[in-house]
């Protein structure tokens, strides 16, 4: 007996352009680009982002309304192999409303962008990039220590 003939298949539904929950990594760069001697907790958070399909490839799902949200995180620094804890605030951008709009055309001749503009674009991409596999070398913080710090 062929099992697939007994299974009820539901019709595929297009993933419409709308706001969905995504997970992004909370990076040190979100707080301090000049110092790499600390960790942030939690390591990732949920944000609202536009995603989905538009009817043609010439359109793309983009945010038309956004909202900046400020999140309290724990900054953990190690001094003499002992952790010190401090509260800190990072900002994330939530997409509030999405729309299918014409995709920007790729220019035939790319203009040379200044280093400042390139790093600004990279920084914006870094803040909105979905969470990747977390690095294994992060130090673990116990749940009890986290509860104590957040009180």
UniProtKB/TrEMBL annotation:
PROSITE patterns: PDGF_1, PDGF_2. Residues 107-142 have a biased composition (Basic residues). Antiparallel homodimer; disulfide-linked. Antiparallel heterodimer with PDGFA; disulfide-linked. The PDGFB homodimer interacts with PDGFRA and PDGFRB homodimers, and with heterodimers formed by PDGFRA and PDGFRB. The heterodimer composed of PDGFA and PDGFB interacts with PDGFRB homodimers, and with heterodimers formed by PDGFRA and PDGFRB. Interacts with XLKD1. Interacts with LRP1. Interacts with SORL1 (via the N-terminal ectodomain). Interacts with CD82; this interaction inhibits PDGFB-mediated signaling pathway. SMART domains: PDGF (SM00141). Keywords: Growth factor, Mitogen. It holds the Pfam family PDGF. Residues 103-151 are annotated as: Disordered. This is Platelet-derived growth factor subunit B. The lineage of its organism: Eukaryota, Metazoa, Chordata, Craniata, Vertebrata. One of its GO terms (molecular function) is growth factor activity. Growth factor that plays an essential role in the regulation of embryonic development, cell proliferation, cell migration, survival and chemotaxis. Potent mitogen for cells of mesenchymal origin. Required for normal proliferation and recruitment of pericytes and vascular smooth muscle cells in the central nervous system, skin, lung, heart and placenta. Required for normal blood vessel development, and for normal development of kidney glomeruli. Plays an important role in wound healing. Signaling is modulated by the formation of heterodimers with PDGFA.
């Amino acid at each position: 007996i062929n099992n697939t003939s007994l299974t009820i298949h539901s019709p595929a539904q297009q993933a419409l352009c709308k706001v969905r929950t995504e997970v992004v990594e909370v990076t040190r760069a979100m707080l301090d680009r000049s110092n790499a001697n600390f960790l942030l907790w939690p390591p990732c958070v949920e944000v609202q982002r536009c995603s989905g399909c538009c009817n043609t490839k010439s359109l793309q799902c983009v945010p038309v309304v956004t909202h900046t949200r400020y999140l309290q995180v724990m900054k953990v620094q190690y001094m003499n192999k002992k952790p010190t804890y401090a509260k800190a605030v990072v900002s994330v951008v939530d997409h509030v409303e999405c729309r299918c709009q014409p995709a920007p055309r790729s220019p035939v001749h790319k203009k040379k962008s200044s280093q400042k503009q390139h790093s600004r674009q990279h920084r914006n991409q870094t803040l909105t990039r979905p969470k990747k596999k977390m690095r294994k070398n992060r130090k673990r913080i116990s749940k009890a220590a986290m509860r104590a710090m957040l009180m």
